[in-house]
Amino acid sequence: MGAFEDGELVGLQGQDFDDDLIKIPRRQARSNIGTRILMQRCAASATLLGATSHVMMRLAQKFDAVRLVVFNPCASAVTAMKASVSAGGSTAAPLNSGGAWKGVTWAGGAGTVNLPLTADAQNPSITLSDWIDVEGDDSRLLSVRIYVPAGGNVEHPIHSASVVAANMENYPDREWIMKNQVGDFVGAPAGMNSAGSINVGMVAGVQYMARGEVLSVFGFGDSIMQGFGSASGVDSHALKGVASVAGETGAAIEFANMGWQSQTTAQTLARLSAAVPLLKPHAVIYAAFSPNDGDPDAAKAAAQKARLARARAACADVGATLVPVTGLPVNVSAVASKYSDGADDMRKSVNDVVRALDNAVDIDVEVADTTRPGKASRFRTVAAGFPVDYTTDFLHPTDAGYAAGAPKIARALRKLL
């Protein structure tokens, strides 16, 4: 269910698709379906078998119904997962154990679900629950619980939000609080009394029917998109850009963090190709280059450009707007690039294709000492004569490095409002 079903895309008929990367007209960006993904990156684990994962999150809009989004990276069976949801609560009492809880159903009414397996732990299966009527109040707070029994299961999906934990303190209007406790507190919600907040859990995210328009933005890429900076807990340029637009305009904007540490562009595209048709975001921020592909050369650059075209086509199929971002330099030290001049020219050739597209975001020009061909770029650092360190580990941006690119993300998103 959604505002744009198959065959109902707006403005795609009669368009001229005459270049090799496809000209994609923009649709009316927002709808009444919001998507919040705390983090797609997940792994098979046994740490929370027989325990309940709880997340309280503040959504961007008031809501009337929700459905859960569950990712499964496990190669063995995950059976009898169950969940419940509750509206309301407070940050002072995030468990909302005294609230009105509703059991989540699956596949048209089942009280539990067996998660589809995946052949690739780096590309988890995606399961959606049924839509559950839950009337949110002015707080926009939603609590979600998931329980996987220990009996019959050897592992389950687990998400770590440690690298984006700053979201809770930096953006109090979009915060989440995570808790876990041994026992089934889906069936008996009043008994949960976990005191400490944690940064791992089984809850990935939700979609919701909002009472107003929402712009749902997905960010696909590697650790740089995920928000892993030179220091843990740094928010990515994408999240900073989303927060900036929401704060300045008052628009309801949701961000789905689909960044995944250490993934290649091929792995990122595989996840995008699975998630975008099912979850139908309104905009997709996509990293066309990744150092995880290996040192750049002509063949890698050609493959990255082809994947960019496929990402644009996947977005076009559901009427989503692609917001491609340029790839960043990689240093071997504070004053030297990791790549040879010729290798870095291949990275720059991918960036040139990105820059030629509609809605392109050029972050490279903000953090690199040069974008000219013929000389390998490097992150700007104090040791190299620049006023601010845009990296300290020579691979990921610092908070200042992410902040340098955020205004361009914000500018691209404002066009969709």
Q: Can you give a write-up of this model?
A:
With 417 residues, the protein is α+β, with helices and mostly antiparallel strands. It has one domain (32-414): Rossmann fold (3-Layer(aba) Sandwich), CATH 3.40.50. Helices cover 22% and strands 27% of the residues. The strands form 4 sheets. Strands 1, 4, 8, 9, 14, 15, 16 and 17 form an 8-stranded mixed beta sheet that branches. Helix 3 packs across helix 8, helix 4 (265-279) packs parallel to helix 5 and helix 5 packs parallel to helix 6. The longest helix is centred in the C-terminal third of the chain and has 20 residues, at 298-317. The radius of gyration is 21 Å and the shape is globular.
Quick overview:
With 417 residues, this protein is α+β, with helices and mostly antiparallel strands. Helix content is 22%, strand content 27%.
Averaged pLDDT, please? Answer: 88
Class by helix and strand content?
Answer: alpha+beta
Strand content: 25-35%
Element pattern in H and E? EEEEEEEEEEEHEEEHHEHEHEEEHHH
**CATH architectural designation:** 3-Layer(aba) Sandwich
Please give the count of helices. Answer: 8
CATH topology: Rossmann fold
- What's the number of extended β-strand segments? 19
CATH homologous superfamily name? SGNH hydrolase
Tell me about the largest β-sheet. 8 strands, mixed
Contiguous low-pLDDT stretches (5 residues minimum) are 1-28, 163-169
Estimate nothing, just give the exact number of structural domains: 1
Q: What's the CATH class label? A: Alpha Beta
Q: Specify the overall morphology.
A: globular
Distance linking N and C termini: 23 Å
Provide the gyration radius in Å. 21 Å
Percent helix, as a range, is 10-25%
